[in-house]
Amino acid sequence: MRATILDDPAGPADAVVPRDAWEPRAAAHAARADALTAVWREARDRGAEHAIEDFLFTYYPTRVSHLRRWHPGPGVVLADAAEHAGWRWYRETALPGEESGACGTGATLDVDAFVADRGDTVRYVRALVSATAGRPGTFGCFGLHEWAMVYRDRTAGRDHRHPLPLRLGHDGTDAVVESHRIGCSHFDAYRFFTPEASERNQLRPTRERQPAMEQPGCLHAGMDLYKWALKLGPAAPGDLLLDAFELARDIRYTDMAAAPYDVSSYGVDAVPIETAEGKAEYVRRQRGFAARGQELRARLVDVCDALLAGVSRTPSR
Questions:
Q1: Nearest-10 Cα torsion for 117, 122, 125, 129
Q2: Which of 101, 148, 165, 282 has the greatest count of CB atoms below 10 A from its CB?
């Protein structure tokens, strides 16, 4: 199949993008990554913990350098990109002849090699995010998973999970848990519940049942879209990765604002879910995050489908 010469890296399969088109895109991507990570990097450089943003770099282990590296996704050939050709899962490829306006070599994602190595991951991500996207969202959890993670800690002689004071104290936090129905559907939140809180959850999520239980209203399912973009590695286009990271960061701030912790030291106002007003604000944000997450799920499925269909058919050199 003859490649098409494009100025836009988001073009169709087997598109050749000249260096003067993709290089500014890569630079803009790195600048956006720097802006999104500026708060966390400033704290890190001071040797300080950031009780809100550290989660994005510990629970989702990655490096700023990974976020800064731009990838066009499958089916795109970057002309004059020797540096990309040396990256994992990339290969050098011949450009079309001079009559098409280009010559020499380019670099492209080696879809066959990537799927050979990560095909099970691609299929799992596709199955999970598409199943989640097909379910209605649930909007009545009010972020109580964070409260359940510290429930009765003091009574049991445990330390709570964050180096932040509890906004309502231990007794007040326990009272909130005891006065609410808990219905957490996300295994990776539920597994951190205290033993006393686990028995109060009306659902029993497991790792094996995750694809059958995850729903788009869940804040942690929305944050995990960043994890799934990371799992797709260089197959995830740069804008998709940063959009997923930005959503995860935005959700994380609400997750902690609605948690039992006092986050005022970070300039963040509480979302007091123990009140009617706080519940309404939580649901309003939750619905907005769910809509953003659904759009990202569709894009992740598109990437998985492109990989599994073998979109990149440009012959190797």
A1: 170
A2: 148
Strands (E) across 66-219 are located at: 76-79, 90-94, 105-109
Handedness of CA 211, 179, 149, 201 (dihedral sign): negative
Contact 205, 185 (CB under 8 A): yes
**pTM of the predicted model as reported, rounded to 2 decimal places:** 0.90
What are residue 10's phi and psi, to 5 degrees? -95, 30
Type of residue found at 53: E
Whether 101 contacts 5, CB under 8 Å: yes
Angle at 306 between CA 303 and CA 311, to 5 degrees: 140
**pLDDT score recorded for residue 3:** 39
Cα-Cα end-to-end distance for the chain: 14
Tell me whether residue 30 is exposed, middle or buried, using C-beta atoms within 10 angstroms of its C-beta: 0 to 12, 13 to 18, 19 or more. middle
pLDDT in tens, 278-293: 999 999 999 999 999 9
- Tens-place pLDDT, residues 195-224: 999 999 999 999 999 999 999 999 999 999
